[in-house]
Please model this.
Amino acid sequence: MTNQTMNLFEKHQNTLSTAVKALAERTYYTPYPENPKAYAEDADAKAKAWISTTMNNDFKGLKQTGETAWHGEEISPFLQVGVGVKYPIFSVDTLINNANTAQKSWSKTNANTRAGILIETLEKISARFFDIAYATMHTTGQAYMMSFQASGPHANDRALEAIAAGYQELTRYPEQVEWVKNFGKFDLKVNKDFKPVAKGVGLVIGCSTFPIWNTVPGLYATLITGNTCIVKPHPKAILPIAIVIEEIQNVLAENGFDANIVQLAADSSANPITKQLAENNTIKMVDFTGSSEFGNYVESLPKLTFTEKAGVNSMILDSVNDLQPVLANIAFSASLYSGQMCTAPQNIFVSKNGVETANGLVSYDDVVKGIAAAITGLVDNPKAGPGTLGAIQAEATYKRTNEAKNLGGNLVLDTKAIKNEEFADARIATPVVIEVNKSQKDIYNRECFGPVLFIVKTDSVEDSLELCKALVMEKGALTCGAYTTNQATKEMIAEEMNEAFVPVTFNFTGAGFINSHAAFSDFHLTGGNPAGNASFTNAEFVSKRFVWVGNRYM
Amino acid sequence: MTNQTMNLFEKHQNTLSTAVKALAERTYYTPYPENPKAYAEDADAKAKAWISTTMNNDFKGLKQTGETAWHGEEISPFLQVGVGVKYPIFSVDTLINNANTAQKSWSKTNANTRAGILIETLEKISARFFDIAYATMHTTGQAYMMSFQASGPHANDRALEAIAAGYQELTRYPEQVEWVKNFGKFDLKVNKDFKPVAKGVGLVIGCSTFPIWNTVPGLYATLITGNTCIVKPHPKAILPIAIVIEEIQNVLAENGFDANIVQLAADSSANPITKQLAENNTIKMVDFTGSSEFGNYVESLPKLTFTEKAGVNSMILDSVNDLQPVLANIAFSASLYSGQMCTAPQNIFVSKNGVETANGLVSYDDVVKGIAAAITGLVDNPKAGPGTLGAIQAEATYKRTNEAKNLGGNLVLDTKAIKNEEFADARIATPVVIEVNKSQKDIYNRECFGPVLFIVKTDSVEDSLELCKALVMEKGALTCGAYTTNQATKEMIAEEMNEAFVPVTFNFTGAGFINSHAAFSDFHLTGGNPAGNASFTNAEFVSKRFVWVGNRYM
Model:
């Protein structure tokens, strides 16, 4: 360690040890406030100015050289015009060669050096949270607050979590030990050292809806374990992660490291390079977030893979104390970022016998009407609707949502546009609610990405659970919500769903939403069901990226 | 937990916590003495009587029922006659159904219950160490002392290591936690629980040379994590592991558990059931020790796999203080169990410039002659030879060894039979030593299983290292030995070989042998090179067998 990197380790040692502790205790922790008001008063105004000058210009912040072209094709879902930023395009050979060169030095650093450097990058990134917020809005369609929180503090939390998990695993064995075996007449003494050896270059493939939040866990897990990383963003959502990589490269260069330890590998829809990169022998591990189809391809590669694919999240509505807060909670979970979160609920299983409440039974039909009314109440509220929904990222999602009524089933509430005062041209679609019979599996037993909610009429809560479990075993899920006041039912749902490796969130109302997964506490994905093989951040998410090797000396 | 299982946990709690501590500190630890003299004076005599009555009889010790036939085809390498023990044969359906039934209850037990039960089984197994020794001798051909140690205390150590590693991973997160997030005006409180959910039924496929040592890590790792296990032994080496399973089933039944939590799945060479079992959907994980060909098939299955395949272990001979102890050490490592250990050296890389010693340079030719002389000195010594060599397990190995002289290269020392006073008919082959040029890769760049040693003449130590590294990157290795008195050379060898995920053992003489991997300290395999994807016992070896699921409650 140089003095400089030693200083960075010492500077961030407290954050690191607090993070390691939080990860083990799984209690609430974040060093990055999620409230924009906690930051400089003029930060937002500066970021607004920044996004204006950034749009329609080349992105010059990277330290990578040797580009063969400049290209960009992002479209703002709020403006429905091109963002106009062009990014340098590099050949696969250039990216691979740079990564191989950088790997030689980075893999020789130790865990302390890397932890210091990497937490420093998070500090620098946090100074860009407002720029990142606008970059996220105008690529993903997330509303301002979500753009700020999900791409800013919450993403930094997940990155820090990966650093902490990595640090803990990298330091779990002594570097050196004297091993002594007594043979009666003499001792056999052997000196041993234990080294975590990096596996090699990683590739992280980003998605269009959460270009930072879903990228940084794999990116930082790859880096903390001594591997270099190529980040291949979705061509429609490059700007947010480009800022992150700019900041990481700056910190690396300032501390005497090869900036190519992390590279941005932008490509175009017309000339995608993802498979070329993923199949390259230099790439030893691939992190992926996106469709199940491409995710299955990634998993089929003969290398280490970490995937987050599609799933179908469900809720089981059995019994409640007070129905209204529950309906409001479901409505918000389904409307937040227009159902484009990987944790958004799609199927609501309700027994034909209705829902027991403290004030008596509410009929099935009234529950269905109540869900629709709660959604309408939320989206039609001009103070809540636009900021909850944001905009639809992709034209295909917009089309799918608007055509959902033709899937079959009974249309309870159609999608519609609402007015966004700030962005008149925003691509908006409120949730469509469709009631289906439990036998209509061809409709609801698959992911229908976007603001589409199916209410599935079942025979009983046991029936709901059986259908829900069978669905997640086949298609996977990131989460499952359940509302029940019955302890035995609660235990039954937890046991059955957990057996399918899906966590259950019970009786959330108020400020608790099924969609939110808190770093240091909630595992994002279990890695055990078809929705993906990774889990942010269990020990394996980092430990698979290096190999323990022990040498012996006499 | 019942009182009975609570008692077992309390009984073994000290052993468990000592094992967990040793695993972290990687210091010397064993609760099972490796010296037969540490056990009852009459234990050996009783075991001799036991093996006499066991041979040529049906093995009735299992609690499994519903067999379709009885079959056995083991041949004693020491007697070269059939062992004559027949084992119950079960249909794949019976095995799978039993495993599924047992899985339901076993997966609901907690880590304490399982740890108590499983350490109790090790205690019961330790009371059978002498029976196991004779069973191992007459199936594997290991000499008495190795049979006792490798299948007895050393295997129990590895089993305990897997239990300890599993216990540590299963208990690394709190079972319940209250998570509190402050929103300024109010606190959001969420109760969470964290559950390690077992992945399902495991299959452990054993090998013919180390039927217990290589089986119990996967078996106990599978069991401690809440999974049931089907053990498919090599048809030529069933008896040792049958005793282990008998003892496990006894402990399970005595404590009110389904004995089918562990099942013996014996088969025959004529009607193998391994692939049927491995491909069955019920089987969620497969542990395998054996050939690379079959191991590659196992790894290609769409399920969790842990493999130990073939590799080519090498030694690099550069410089020494005193050559004689080094030559004696190499001779012993190559002769121990006739080179049938997965950690036995095969290739000795020596520079054409010879070997520097404290007494001056020893020429390459003298080193070659010295290795041959050291082997001859060892095997021709009637007090050391038979007990070191043991017997050749398989006829194919015997044939390969005797035909090695025809591979090409320069025959330095041919294989021969030596006399074993106790077993006149033992299948014995002393190491054959062949000198090859570094260009003769078709000869030495592949595993030649058995007592076959290639001395590879290279241009320099750097050349030796380059050849050795390229070989292990292609073919894999469990270990690498090196002799050098030069610090820079030592670091260079460690760095290069570690980069290929192979550990290096430096300058072992006296009682230290490259072949030995000590539980709680040495990782057996790194999991990072083509010799296998498992590592006994890193955290992943257990953590991959279950899934963390966290539920949230309001």
